Amino acid sequence: MALILGFESSCDETAASVVKDGRFVLSSAISSQIAKHAPYGGVIPELAAREHLTALRRITDEALSGAGVTPADIDCVAVTNGPGLVPALLCGLNFAKGFASAHKKPIIGINHFLGHIYGVFLDAEEDVFARKDLFPMAALVVSGGHTALVIIDSNGAVKLVGTTLDDAAGEAFDKAAKMLDLGYPGGPIIEKAAKLGDAKKYHFPRSLTGSAGRALDPANRFNFSFSGVKTAMLYHVHNLCDELKTERLEGEPLYDTLASYQEAIVDVLCSKAVDAAKFHGAKSLILCGGVACNGALRERFEAVAPKNIKVFLAPRKYCTDNAAMIAGVAYRYYQAGKFSDLSMDAYARFSGDLQIPME
């Protein structure tokens, strides 16, 4: 048996969790900063860092007490060291280093993307990640800060095959909500309002899909771009307000607008995920990350996936940032004796390849 204490502070959630044997979540403590960032319509890195500093000790104590363990019981410390907001990452990273050093525990730095992917398998009755028949795995990691397609082979090789060239999908939701003065975070607000609208009422662009009449550069086949749909929303709102002679969209025009906007984003995410899965011969297809909470996305993702590909949707409680997913994937490294050292640093972007120990 191995108990791993995980830390996560890549954005605006301060989280700590104790996970047993990579699957069994004994505790998951999270301190959200939504109320702090809401007035700005997005996350302010310096503010996030200050909030992490005030919450880390409390959240750690909560995770340990919730699991009914002491620092002496912990076998290893795991911490997100990228990608993410560097000021925020450094808070969790340095706290985890201090904890590991003080209690003489080994430490493992974990890639945030891998954490989200592995979160799909938490609380499972079997070690799903050990099933060779599910590889290669294709994963769509979609959140406020990241939109990426990742392929994991049966030998544990991890390759980033697609990423956003500008805005992430979650950011596109947040900025649209801010544009319409709907509140923050924008994703849940837009999802709720979109249920009342007609998703076919208006057409918003699907960038990097070849749908605009121009040939798609093969290099961008699995990449994403959501700045165009965000700009289209700006002009759409301006023109529709002029047409309706109003200063603010409300009622049916608002609901139809949001439903159509959400439809464009969901369409791009699902079509590219399925294309990547087919191209790379994936046996399973994963949806994870904060935006994976979106009901329309979850429903479409399952509907369009090929029948011969196993679909995994991250449980909603493990979609948003949490430390259980970090401690979970760290177990693979712990078993293989692959530890980090106290010199490891934080990084903002993930552009290279990784290797997950599979034995």
Structural features, described:
This protein is of the alpha/beta class and 359 residues long. Helix content is 39%, strand content 18%. The chain contains 10 helices and 11 strands. The protein has helices spanning 34-37, 45-67, 86-102, 112-118, 169-179, 186-194, 227-244, 251-279, 295-304, 324-336; strands spanning 3-8, 13-20, 24-32, 76-82, 107-111, 137-142, 147-152, 157-163, 284-288, 310-313, 354-355. The strands form 2 sheets. A 6-stranded mixed beta sheet has the order 10-9-6-7-8-11, sandwiched between helices. Strands 3-2-1-4-5 form a 5-stranded mixed beta sheet, sandwiched between helices. Helix 4 packs across helix 10. The longest helix is centred in the C-terminal third of the chain and has 29 residues, at 251-279. The chain is globular and about 65 Å long.
Keywords:
5-stranded mixed β-sheet, alpha/beta, 11 strands, 359 residues
Question: What is the topology?
Answer:
Layout: E1 3-8, E2 13-20, E3 24-32, H1 34-37, H2 45-67, E4 76-82, H3 86-102, E5 107-111, H4 112-118, E6 137-142, E7 147-152, E8 157-163, H5 169-179, H6 186-194, H7 227-244, H8 251-279, E9 284-288, H9 295-304, E10 310-313, H10 324-336, E11 354-355
Parallel strand pairs: 1-4, 4-5, 6-9, 9-10
Antiparallel strand pairs: 1-2, 2-3, 6-7, 7-8, 8-11
Helix pairs in contact: 2-3, 4-10, 5-6, 5-7, 6-8, 7-8, 8-9
Structural class: alpha/beta
Find the count of extended strands (DSSP E, 2+ residues): 11
What is the terminal separation in angstroms?
Answer: 16 Å
Principal-axes geometry comes out as globular
- How large, in whole angstroms, is the Cα Rg? 21 Å
What's the helix count? Answer: 10
Low-confidence stretches: none
Q: Report the portion of residues in β strands.
A: 15-25%
Taking all residues together, what is the mean pLDDT?
95
Largest sheet: 6 strands, mixed
Helix content: 25-40%
Main β-sheet, spatial strand arrangement:
10-9-6-7-8-11
- Note the run of SSEs as H and E: EEEHHEHEHEEEHHHHEHEHE
